[in-house]
Amino acid sequence: MLRTILSISGKPGLYKLISRGKNMLIVEALDATKKRQPVHGTDKVISLGDIAMYTDEEEVPLRQVFANVKAKEEGKPATIDVKKASAADLHEYMAAVLPNYDRDRVYNNDIKKLITWYNILINNSIADFEEPAEEETTEEGAE
């Protein structure tokens, strides 16, 4: 599911991939407006399925971090207010969600973005952060 949710550099919020055209994508904003717009090849677009968070051992996929936040918040929006939270509050929250996150490479803005994106997804009823089952069955079939 996170493969079709996109972050566009320079634009706030998240977008859902609607269609692909020649040299562009059609996306829909995941906010109250649900505005559709084209995204051209010159825009930097990244799928949430391709993002990972740094930890002390290895990178953890964003879907796993979202699942940890969902478990902590019991499927509800995050309780921390990113606009009012201090740096210490953000890092304390992140430590509760992902205890071994890399404190040198995960910045305050990264934590704010994670919480903001989580809230956007939950408010749009996108809460399936589990790994797709089709990849697991493909791996099992190959053995």
Kindly identify the CATH topology of the largest domain. Answer: Arc Repressor Mutant, subunit A
Provide the gyration radius in Å.
16 Å
Number of strands: 7
How far apart lie the N and C ends?
A: 26 Å
Helix content: 25-40%
Q: What's the CATH class of the largest domain, please?
A: Mainly Alpha
Categorize the overall geometry: globular
- Record the strand order, biggest sheet: 4-3-2-1-5
Q: What does the largest sheet look like?
A: 5 strands, antiparallel
Q: Could you state the order of secondary-structure elements as H and E? A: EEEEEEEHHHH
Residue-averaged pLDDT, rounded? Answer: 89
Strand content: 15-25%
* SSE-based structural type: alpha+beta
Second rung of CATH, namely the architecture of the largest domain: Orthogonal Bundle
User: With helices defined by DSSP (H or I, 4 residues minimum), what is the helix count?
Assistant: 4
- How many domains make up the 3D coordinates? 2
Q: Low-confidence stretches at least 5 residues in length (pLDDT < 50)?
A: 135-143
